[in-house]
Amino acid sequence: MRVKNAAILSWLPDRGDYKLEYQRGYERQFLEYHLSGCHPLILFLKREKGGVDLERIREVIEAGNKGKLKGDASLQYDFKAIEKTMLEIRAACCVPSFLGRELRHVLVLGEKKSGDFFTTEDVNVLYTLAQESAIAIENARLYDEAVMKGKELERINEQLQFSKDLLAKALKETEIANKQLQDTQAQLIHEQKMATLGRLAASVGHEVNNPLTILSMNVSRILLKFRKNPNLKVGEILDLFEKMEQNINRIKAVVNTLTGLLKKSEKGKFEPLSLKLILEETLPLVQFQTYLDNLTGTEVEFDVPSSLPLIRGDLERLQEVFLNLFINAYHAMSGKKHRKIHIWAEPDPQNSRFVMVHFIDNGTGMTKEVLSKIFNYGYTTKAPGKGSGLGLYMCKYIIELHGGEIRVVSTPGEGSEFILTSPIYDEASLGGGFQAQRQASAG
């Protein structure tokens, strides 16, 4: 028939309308042309079940027929809307293609290149061909849909592979980051311990040198007396030996305290511990740490019942926690005439598997701004060179590593209260180390 343009209006079930597809001889403006399922042209083709050409529509309009066709007065159509739409889609003839009873496609044909009109015979032949080719047209549509879905699936597979590669990369980076984090945490623990030992050095020197000096003087006195009287009896210098023994015991006490801090516990080893003994054994370490700060005279009150359940943890690590809390409290109370630390413990009222420790001082307290940062790495309120910013950060890390938690409440000018929770000893999970305890506590 040699037409100027041609296309097919295809039914899109997901949209509920017809789209102008498979276009030939159209400009780009028609690429997204749609007609609704209740458009006058669509309704006409569905009801009449036959093709229609533009000249026939115009004849009906010119004849003054307002919608009658084939003598059926009950069927009314908006022929002007049909004419307008056919002009928009450059259709000289429209032929429906049914799949069963459903209008699936409409063959849209433009003007003949010869300038002739579509005859009734042309329309009938096209209608017959349209019905016979309905399945072929539907297969073409399904094929295009399958190709599109195939491309979409290919794109999804590519994205999936890309995501898998990203995930594998992220997992590898996470593994490296975790290793670095573990190394950093181990280094922080080491640095904190070295900082503690640095403070111990000067105070231990004083504590050991004093009895050593007295011991040396007593030995000199004994030697002097012996030179004057080789027949000297022990009873005559017994008082000097007793003083020497006292000073030796003082040195032993200092050394034992120091070696207690230096002893190495097995990494991740948990054991049943008495909270009361941990605190009592930590206090001498505090005295060494604050020896040069002139913070003596602080009243420390323990209220830890003997009936309190044993907690489960690493003695050395927990001593580091309480040592830091003691030292911070001492410094917070610096300059006060009456300094007091009150420590009391109880079973956690919220969870019977935990013990709660309240560590209270009557120091300067903290503002809300300081409270929001005190557990941050590197944060300190002390003067430059006085604080590392590691103390409370490590306290939080160690307590959480044990499966507990630490928080603080404070009022400026009135003091601070640190509240710690620690899991009680459970023999069933004794061998699991840090991670097992954290999982058991979380469960």
Low-confidence stretches: 431-443
| Overall shape | rod-shaped
What do the pLDDT scores average to?
82
CATH architecture of the largest domain: 2-Layer Sandwich
Distance between the termini: 81 Å
* CATH classification, class level of the largest domain: Alpha Beta
CATH topology of the largest domain: Heat Shock Protein 90
Into which percentage range does the β-strand content fall? 15-25%
Number of spatially distinct domains: 3
- C-alpha-based Rg, rounded: 47 Å
Order of adjacent strands in the largest pleated sheet: 3-2-1-6-5-4
Largest sheet: 6 strands, antiparallel
Number of helices, counting only DSSP H or I runs of 4 residues or more: 11
Helix-and-strand structural type: alpha+beta
The CATH homologous superfamily of the largest domain corresponds to Histidine kinase-like ATPase, C-terminal domain
Helical amount: 40-55%
Q: Secondary-structure element order, as H and E?
A: EEEHEHHEEHHHEHEEHEEHHEEH
